[in-house]
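One chain given next:
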Amino acid sequence: MPIDPSAVGQTGGPVTRKWTSKDALLYALGVGAGTQELRFTTENSQNIQQRVLPTFAVIIGGGGAPFNKIGDFNPAMLVHGEQGIELLGEIPPEGEVESVGKISAIWDKGKGAVVEMTSESTLVATGEPLLRTRMSAFIRGEGGFGGERGPSASFEAPTRAPDHQVAYETGVDQALLYRLSGDRNPLHSDPAFAKMGGFDKPILHGLCTYGFTGRALVNTICDGDPSRFRSMDGRFSKPVLPGDTLTILMWVDGSECTFQTKNQDGDVVIDQGKMTFA
């Protein structure tokens, strides 16, 4: 059957996910952290305690999302549209979470369907909620079922100059490193598969770009302290190629930061960015 809008409210899980100190270190390297951020990239440096990047939430969270309950669709037609995380506590260097997911919305966009999934993850050791994730996917060719279009995003970047601006170069091999954190989609590693998808070469994972952006936010807005990081939402607007330079523009208003991420050509690759902090 095609996309089933009556699936909204269906749940999945619980599922568990364990991670180790090594997993957190590998993720940090995968999103470009290095010798200037030893708190995220080492576990045995003198006078430095290992911390975890807040965007590691996309690796350990999101469990239980019941995609098998929304109907039949071609996975090749699915595009990651938006990603959000909410931290209810600082992620420890190692641990285990239990996650329950939910289909929170299905919208009919005519040429496709938008499916939104939410998930909450609880630390098994304490029983306390640790994080929540939200993601939306645009599934091409699955619209036209007569459902509501859903809310239209209204976002404008501030007209004033950004309060902060950080540029990071991604490596030409960045996707090969990031994929070791779990996403082995050949779109990011196999040139032949990428060409079938319409790309000249493999593209960078959207969540890797998201991680680079989160690094800039925690290092700049939170002074490198992940315990101050509360939430982050953004919309993927253009693919990034390994080797691209990412510039993160930040506008701060109280405990909220509006952000955009652009490539070296000035194209916006993450839009509608909102981050909150303490």
